[in-house]
Design a protein that fits this description.
The structure is a homotetramer of 290-residue chains. Chain A is mainly α. Chain A is built from eleven helices and no strands. In chain A, helix 8 crosses helix 11. The longest helix of chain A is centred in the C-terminal third of the chain and has 38 residues. At the B-C interface, helix 9, helix 10 and helix 11 of B face helix 2, helix 8, helix 10 and helix 11 of C.
């Protein structure tokens, strides 16, 4: 169909690619499964190594070992990344895909840490790679559930945007009011700082690092908290309803019958005649004439 | 229809008004859209300027510039407000409408700050103006969602009032009890202060600025918290159910039409033929035969 | 019907009672309404007086005045209570009813405060009396909503009890574990204290007066918090579903038709024949025979 | 059926076993009920004793008495455990069942405390034994509710696992970012410590023992909190929808019967006649004529 400069699928080179592709990208062969399991363990271990390295007591004793482990894993992941690039037909497309970017970002921090101290902590983004290798467990249903969640969230995204705009506007105004009422001497040093406090309060997190001190400030806080309550309630209700609806639609099980007169579907389960053209709907293969 | 002293729509003055009205109030012409986008940017920038001015480190270096920016924006918004008043037929009606008041309140604080220091922080109410200019993005669906939310809230407003009265009564009694049990020496200095604590606790915010110290106080707090739990649960459930119901009603949209052949109803809104007897359903008063 | 020693309704004494009963207990006459409004204001004012009296700065200046106000209101409420006792037929029944007890408890604290200092703060239970006088606003729908809420809560009460038992058991075990892990030196001074902490944490209140310090304690806390999450989620879901169900049942609008054959009701709206005896159901007054 | 070495049910020994089994394991005889009530009280008392012993002021005065009580109860529970082992046919099966393990774990800590100080606090796991004795109150419906809850949780378990994996990945990445941004000098001493903070914050617990100090850290926290919000909302919605669905399925219970007159189905479970044609519906295979 197109004149790409790559060899045809029958050449030895291509079969080498196909074989590696099968192992690295798929999980339907013993070798592919083994590769994914090893990758899974390697990712978890390397993330744990990065985490432990930041604990002072551990770093003191095993710091060098952890650094070595980190470089070894980064080396392995780099080789894997290069292999992935080599064994796909269109390396650029892969490199720009979501997982391609994650694969690259998962190795870069170690190299960056040579120039920027601490950058290697970003290696924890490797955790995102886990999403891909979960498929080795044949968790098709998990993927389905994740998709169902994503669909419900997408279906509600406009409501969520409206909600966030309302929250941001409320937080801005509330922050300015509290900054005026309480003032810098009570910890509300600026409007952005007050907005941080308003978010912490409305979300019911309530760190307690900044608290209202004046009676008026406390009254306003109480109102803000009750307002923040609805902030929880409203989106919860929205999403609950959305999930219920999506599920009901799926459960509704409209008749899958096509009308023989006009070919349209979407008839109720108890319909005997096509609601679009009046032609009789047949249940057991023979048409009932109107 | 009425003898208003304004010139007829054909006079040059009126056409000037019409043209400006179109630009300032509508967003269906290139000029109107451009106006709304500029306004959007101006509002966001002026709110940011007010916010940054309260940050000490920023105010030290750029304080004068930010003040100038604020006055410039206030000047522009004042001109815009006057133009809005001039190009509507009934300026008083506009000035008393919700957006008219917001437009005025969005410029007043700067002038007030000449007499009352700090008043200009209330300029952040300008954020409310954003609601109007969002229309430039043709976010009709957003508006719909906002209306759906508002409807669900309005439909639940009696339950919400009942809920708030129960909360207030509970908070008052709990505040008095804790004031008696813990006393001023443990931070519960007065009943209003204890009520503030009760709201902070029941809402699960839990700042930690006031905490029970005596064993009895801690026990009462634990009970209050479990009670506060139901406070979250009850209204969440109410609103969820309300949103579900509103949505179901909207989804139902069954036609109220009776079939002229068999007289039955319950047909879908898009049905053209009776699903029970196959007789044509008529929309404009005449039957369509199958 | 019964030989009670009270005078007949026609005697002047009885009519005096009936008249007062009408004013004090009902709200369907101008005098009754006025009485309820005055009572409403008196209750709110007396609760506010008690609250303000505990604020040191207010008590300093207006302490005596507030005390006088409190005694005046208590005197008035005492007179009202005696009148209520006098104008009902069965004073003992009234005195033992919910509102009878509330009416008594609402005046006792002032007298108790002569012997026990501070007892008068319990006067805030007067707020409960507000529930009765709300009826003056003809808030029938509010009462309906309150009943709907109560019904949903009652229908879920077994689930709530199961839920509370699970929470208490979890809190007890978690409290003992944290007491062992963190120990008194980190604030977990005893198992009850740890249980208080566990409730504060699981409910996401998080005062921060007691916090885990050891790494193991922090890990256990994180697990406890995720567990506490489900504690919110589970009952919320239960009640949402319960409210939806109650509402759906009410919305279902079963046909109110009684069968002419067997007299039973509960037929679907689209039923043409009685599902119990097979007799035709008539819509417009005439029976359709099977 | 099998050649077990135990005596036949008719021997005196077996009847002794049967009698004891009835008392100890069942609650359908007066003796069985009395046994369960005594056990219930004993469990509650022994758990209270363990709890009180950790309160310094109580331990000082009643420490010895509480220790004696603990040993007495442990002795009684040990005897009970041995009796349970003796009077079941297959002691090993019982000992390995959930309740068998709980019964053993409920007595071990006292003996362990001879070697490991403080181990006896684990006696609070005795609270788990309460689950068994609740049956004395004939709380069949409670058990049903508990099962309904468990079913809803099980039906949602894949979504919950997906949800926890998302949370863990988010917490890991957020912990590393905050460790980089805030650093050890602001309390974020290591990535695991930052992850603890992220969980405490996203769950809206917000102890306030670790709080962001830098402006950038506060901004990231605000975003994290809004993200944590969805963490509450999403699973709440899932479970609500799940419970609704399970309940609807149970409520539906439509008869799957076809009418022999017109062949239609969709009849209520209590219908005896077809609601479409009036023909009798048969339950045991024969038609009842109208």
């Amino acid at each position: 169909m197109e004149s790409n400069p790559e060899p045809s699928p029958q050449t030895p080179s291509e079969s080498w690619r196909v074989r590696y592709h099968r192992i690295i990208f798929e999980a339907d062969t013993p070798a592919g499964k083994a590769f994914d399991v090893v990758l899974l363990v390697a990712i978890v271990l390397s993330v744990l190594a990065v985490m432990l390295e930041t604990v002072p007591s551990v770093a003191e004793r095993h710091g060098t070992a952890l650094r070595v482990i980190e470089w070894v894993f980064t080396g392995l992941f780099t080789i894997e990344y290069v292999l992935r690039l080599l064994c796909v037909r269109r390396p650029v497309l892969y490199a720009r895909s979501f997982f391609g970017v994650v694969d690259l970002v998962a190795i870069l921090p170690t190299y960056l840490s040579l120039f920027i101290p601490g950058a290697h902590e970003l290696l924890v983004v490797r955790a995102l790679r886990l999403v891909r290798v979960f498929r080795v467990f044949k968790l098709a249903r998990f993927v389905n559930e994740a998709h169902a969640l994503r669909d419900a969230l997408l279906a509600s995204r406009q409501k969520i945007v409206v909600f966030l705009l309302v929250v941001l506007t409320a937080v801005t105004i509330m922050g300015a009011v509290m900054h005026l009422v309480e003032g810098p001497e009570n910890g509300f040093t600026s409007i952005p700082e007050s907005m941080y406090w308003a978010i912490v309060t409305m979300s019911t997190v309530g760190f307690g690092d900044i608290v209202p001190v004046t009676p008026l400030g406390k009254m306003i806080s109480a109102v803000l908290i009750l307002f923040g309550y609805s902030m929880i309630i409203v989106p919860t209700g929205i999403l609950s309803a959305e999930i219920s609806r999506v599920r009901n639609l799926r459960d509704a099980q409209l008749s899958t019958q096509h009308c023989r007169g006009c070919g349209r579907e979407g008839h109720d389960a108890d319909a005997k005649f096509c609601k679009f053209c009046g032609h009789g709907l047949d249940r057991e293969g023979e048409g009932v004439e109107a």
